[in-house]
Amino acid sequence: MRMRALFLAGPAALAAAAGLSFAISANAMTGDAGQISDTDALIAQASPPPPDARPGERRERRAFSPRAMCDEQVARRVGFRAYIKIRLNLKPEQMTAWSTFEKAADDVTTKEIAHCAALPTEVKTPPTFVDRMNTREEEMKTRLAAMEAVKPSMLALYNTLTPEQKVVLDRPFMGVRGGFDRGREGMEHGPR
Fold it and tell me: Which of 82, 90, 106, 165 could form a disulfide with 161 if both were Cys (CB 3.0 to 4.6 A apart)?
């Protein structure tokens, strides 16, 4: 995460500098160079925003929505299936295997949507270590059950694919959770 912040800080600084230089050159082109507008004066007089908390104090956490996060993950997996279908460019004789896989995946998605609906919409207090461990264990059991439900139809589909199509599924899918990816490890810690 820290490396990502470093990689994003450089381009953000360059973009800010480019925007500032564009604004300065635009003022020079309109003949306003050297003149201070009302907006510029207000910006110069603005005081920095007060800090959220004194040093050493903990800030109040924002509310977290497990339901929204779950819904987002389910939506991404469904979208990823559509992406894979397009990327595979299936032949008519492969569509039966795809339909069987898609039916199994849709059944899993229906269960996931019901699971998401049972989650709270807002959690203000951070969960304890034990709560997080239990939640993660339940998530892993749910994902394992989903994989076991889809695996037979996915393997049957895979066996109908040409070597070129198999390349699409054989490569790791970075940045996508669930489905055919390498999971959380591939996203956060794996090679890029």
Answer: 165
